[in-house]
Every structure is written in structure tokens, then in C-alpha cells.
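Hey L., structure's done. Input below.
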Amino acid sequence: MTLTRSPRPAAPPRDRRTRAGGGVVRRVLWQGTLAGLAGVAVMTAGEKVEQRLTGRPDSLVPGRVLERLLGLSERPPSRAVNLAMHYGQGAALGVLRSVMATAGLRGPAASAMFSVIRLANDQILENATGVGAPPQTWPRAELVIDLLHKTVYAFATGAVADALAARHGPGPGQRHAALRPGRHPDVGPPPRGA
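Output:
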């Protein structure tokens, strides 16, 4: 007696916009990295203009944080280490902004939310490594400058992430909002593939 397997039922077609898998993940990774690097470039250009006006030197904080995270020697970080953390952190966080844009969290409100994430990331890393101090202890002028630069990063990153995500249509959150804007207990998620 031979055993035969019954054929598997055909899987329903998958919606390319919402499928969990390599396509969306790869897209979010490359788009977020690109958006984050663009945001860092815009932020850095703004920092250079501000430094010319204020005379503020380059910050060594990013490099010192990276050295602490990697357990490297305690010395002033090289320019390469400083730039690696400066651009690496921006690129990595850009992926999160790309996730937001892909989900349908786009525009100035989403970039404002992302500004808080960017600032929180900096402060967690700087304070956890002992390189930085809580922002409320900083001189006010230094705090304002940092807030300005990180907000520029967040909005520049958001503009690129939003534009790239929009090429694939509205995100799930935007499709839901199209049914009935706002949060309502009687409106469920749109059907998959809608």
C-alpha cells in the first residue's frame, strides 16, 4: 500500500503592498538607508553653516559614543570614527522612518514624531555610555542648536522616505483612513489587498 499526499490547496494571491516578506523588508531597508543618509547630509550642511556663524567646533560626541559601545580606547576619536557614527546612526534611524512611511505615517506630523525618536536615540546612547549628560543640564543655546539640527535631520529624512514610499501607493494606515478618517470603534481594518 502506498501513501499519497493530497495536493496542497493553492495559497491566496499575496498583495505586494502589505505582504510580510523579503520584498517589503528589502525595500524598507534600502529606502530607509538612503533617506537617513540624505537626512544626515542635509543636517551636516546646516551644522557647517551654523558653525561658521557661531564658531562652535565639530562635536566629538558621536565618535566617543561609538568608541564606548565598541569598547575601544578612551582617546579623542578619529574623524573616521566620528563620521562612521554620525552617518551610521542617521542611516540606521532612516530605516525606522521608512517603516513609518511604508505603514502610511507620512508628512510633517510623522516627521515631527520622528524628531522625538531621533532625539531620544541620541540621548539614550550618550547617557547610557556616560559620554553625555541629560539635555536639561545643557546650556540653553547648545540645547536649541541640537534640537534644530536633529529636527532638520528628521524632516529631510522624512521627505525622502515619504517620496520613496509614495511610489508604492498609500500605506495600510492611509487606506484605513480613507474608509473613515479618525479612530472609530466601528471601523475595522480594510480587507487585505484592498
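The radius of gyration is 22 Å. The chain has a mean pLDDT of 88.

-- N.
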